[in-house]
Amino acid sequence: MQGEYVRVALVMANVRWKDRLIDQRDWPTLKNKTPNGYLPTLKEEGKPEVKDQEMALVRYICHKHNMYPDNPEDRYKAERVVDIITNDCKFYPDNFF
């Protein structure tokens, strides 16, 4: 499901957020309102910018909420796990999750 990694990061960061699911029938109209025509997006209260790109959003959330390692070796290990998970998930059907 699109945006699931972002949802997990927000929950782990204990951030209050609002999930807005998009009906596929509405997507053609909404697509041009996103920064690059992609979902998910993140709009933070009080900030004009709408951010996009799922894994960039996950890293942003983790950095912002001190969930990202400072040590380069530990950061590599964290990034490696994320890459393994995201690459492996490509092989599962959307309804698996």
Please describe the structure with a list of short key phrases separated by commas or semicolons.
97 residues, mainly alpha, 2 strands, two-stranded antiparallel ribbon
Alpha plus pi helix count = 4
Range of strand content: 5-15%
Global geometry: globular
- Tell me the Rg in angstroms: 15 Å
For the terminal residues, how far apart are their CA atoms? 7 Å
Q: Give the SSE order as H and E letters.
A: HHEEHH
User: How much helix is in the residues?
Assistant: 40-55%
Query: What is the mean predicted local confidence, pLDDT?
Result: 88
Largest sheet: 2 strands, antiparallel
For the largest sheet, list the strands in their spatial order: 1-2
- The number of E-state strands comes to 2
Which ranges are low-confidence, i.e. pLDDT below 50, for 5 or more consecutive residues? none
Structural class: mainly alpha
Commentary on this structure:
This protein starts with a helix and ends in an 8-residue tail after the last helix. By secondary structure, it is mainly alpha-helical. Helices cover 44% and strands 6% of the residues. Strands 1-2 form a two-stranded antiparallel ribbon. The mean pLDDT is 88.
